[in-house]
Amino acid sequence: MYKEKTFQSIKINNPIIDDFIKISDAMNVNGGTIVSCFKVNDHSVFKNLPWLEHEKYNNYIQDMLTSPDIIKNIPELNIPKSIEVPIELENINSLILDGAFAIRLIKGGAYKDFKGTPMEAKKLGSQLCEQIFQNRFLGIKIFYSQKPWTNWFYDVNWDSTWVIFDEQESMVWIICMTDTD
Predict the structure, then answer these.
(1) Pick from 27, 154, 175, 171: which is nearest to 89 by CA?
(2) How many C-beta atoms lie closer than 10 Å to residue 101's C-beta?
(3) Using the 8-state DSSP alphabet, how is residue 148 labeled?
(4) Which of 41, 46, 68, 101 has the most crowded CB, counting CB atoms within 10 A?
(5) Are 1 and 63 in contact (CB under 8 A)?
(6) What phi and psi values does residue 165 have, to the nearest 5 degrees?
(7) Residues of the chain with confidence (pLDDT) below 50
(8) SS3 category, 9
(9) pLDDT tens-digit map of 56-107
(10) 126: how many CB neighbours lie within 10 A of its CB?
């Protein structure tokens, strides 16, 4: 569905994002955290996103995640050419994303807990949103799943995927976390 070079991987060099990954990885000792950013070179990716129709956006995003550019640039996810297990994404409001990140941090990993307070988790979630989409909450489309859509996930309590569409900046962010006991 997507031609090559539709998604251009962007190297992330950001201390807030690095801190989020470091803190998350310290909790998810048997799993890990992936934060990837892509510049979208075809604006129809945003225009064609059926963000209000659950079944359609699930299929649309599954197709996007299996594009050659994304498969090639997130090799650790082991993304198959066709995702057999439904991702079951839910459209979430951008205004609650910082809280969603905070909840995931507070939940901890299988063996390690978040070392900070709930307010520190909320602050880090807020800082992460600021870095990803500069707190431009309007016009940001976010989809979330707890399903193990590749074999990188362990199919237990700690699987999380966020796919964030930022049309203004022509960016797509993919954030994945997993752990196991």
Answers:
(1) 175
(2) 25
(3) -
(4) 101
(5) yes
(6) -105, 120
(7) none
(8) strand
(9) 999 999 999 999 999 999 999 999 999 988 899 999 999 999 999 999 999 9
(10) 17
Interatomic CA distance for residues 26 and 42, integer angstroms: 36
> What is the torsional sign of CA 72, 10, 22, 138?
negative
Q: Give the containing element (helix H, strand E) for 177.
A: strand 171-178
What is the set of domains in the chain, with CATH numbers?
7-178 (3.40.1000.50)
CB atoms under 10 Å from CB of 121, counted, come to 22
Residue 39 amino acid letter: K
Q: Does the predicted TM-score (pTM) go above 0.90?
A: yes
For the chain, report the end-to-end CA distance as a whole number of angstroms: 37
Identify whether the C-beta of residue 158 lies closer than 8 Å to the C-beta of residue 170: no
